[in-house]
Write a structure and sequence with these properties.
By secondary structure, the chain is α+β, with helices and mostly antiparallel strands. It folds into two domains: 150 residues, Rossmann fold (3-Layer(aba) Sandwich), CATH 3.40.50; 135 residues, Tumour Suppressor Smad4, CATH 2.60.200. The protein has seven helices and 20 strands. It has a six-stranded antiparallel sheet with strand order 9-8-19-16-11-12. The protein has a six-stranded antiparallel sheet with strand order 15-14-13-10-17-18, with no helix packed on it. A five-stranded parallel sheet has the order 4-3-2-5-6, sandwiched between helices. Helix 2 links the parallel strand 3 and strand 4. It is globular and about 60 Å long.
């Protein structure tokens, strides 16, 4: 997927990690910086609560912010950005996101605090690019009836609870049977999510511009159950074999969890719209990997 230019911006949504009081002075300074340039800062409700009260401040609930601004600035970590990306995806608005990390460099929130205003300048002056990142659409059905519909940026994960035994999962790609997995769970990840739970479970790192999905078993019973990379246009179906002792949950991006019952089927495919990530820095993906994963260090 080739980088795209950022459309003109007049309203900037601002979302900070919940209870991140260290962001308060930055939120106040950001508001002044944006207003001085003729832009309107729009604060998410919980983010505005981190600031002293002030008249005239534009504040919106997260769902409304996900449709009413031209871009979103996230202050926090990758989890905060993922939560906002999922909200924007649910709204179907496609608003681009710029992530600023508080702490260590993130895979998605790769802009550091010292780079904040330079990155904003690049974004607002058209010198930044927007990367489109694949998202997943996940549906659970029972007897042909839809039980849940969800969207995810990183991954869709089928796992057992602490009291449950090993899972028995039949996996299909389209209508073709792939394998029967006996494991603690199964991860279906996007390239963006390849560096999240997938990486911890031994799955491959896949560059985010690849059109692909990754299927990775979690602690498989046999060594022959290995991760596999499939085309991004694929549809993955998972059919659990269950009895009364089994407790299975289905989790999207580690943020939304649904119970799975006997007879349920899980279907995961590419979502209709991608997440749009603003990349204002010249830092390459491999540089981010080296910094985050400490490659080559002893």
């Amino acid at each position: 997927m080739s980088p795209l230019p950022l459309p003109p911006v007049s309203q900037v949504g601002i979302v900070a990690k919940s209870e991140l009081h260290a962001a308060t002075p930055h939120l106040l300074e950001l508001g002044e910086w944006l207003s001085a340039r003729g832009l309107t800062p729009v604060y998410e409700t919980e983010t505005a609560a981190l600031m002293p009260p002030a008249g005239g401040r534009v504040i919106l609930e997260r769902g409304a912010l996900a449709t009413d601004v031209d871009m979103v600035l996230v202050l926090g970590g990758d989890g905060t950005l993922i939560g906002m990306a999922d909200c924007i995806a649910d709204a179907g608005s496609g608003i681009p996101i710029l992530g600023v990390n508080f702490g260590n460099l993130g895979f998605l929130t790769e802009v550091t605090l010292p780079e904040l205003y330079r990155s904003l300048e690049h974004a607002l002056n058209g010198r930044a690019h927007v990367e489109e990142r694949m998202m997943l659409r996940a549906i659970t059905t029972s007897g042909g009836d839809v039980r849940t519909r969800s969207l995810a940026l990183n991954d869709a994960v089928v796992t057992k609870t602490a009291r449950s035994r090993m899972l028995d999962l039949s996996v299909y790609v389209g209508d073709e049977f792939v394998t029967r997995v006996r494991a603690d769970g199964l991860i279906i990840a996007t390239p963006t999510g390849s560096t999240a739970y997938n990486l911890s479970a031994g799955g491959p790192i896949v560059q985010p511009n690849m059109d692909a999905m990754i299927i990775t078993p979690i602690a498989p019973h046999t060594l022959t159950n290995r991760p596999i990379v499939i085309p991004g246009a694929s549809t993955v179906r998972v059919q659990p074999t269950m009895d009364a002792r089994d407790e299975i949950v289905f989790t999207l991006d580690g943020q939304s969890t649904f119970p799975i019952h006997a007879g349920d089927e899980i279907t995961v495919c590419r979502a209709p719209k991608p997440m749009r990530l603003i990349r204002p820095t010249t830092r390459s993906y491999f540089e981010v990997l080296r910094t985050k994963l400490k490659w080559g260090e002893r």
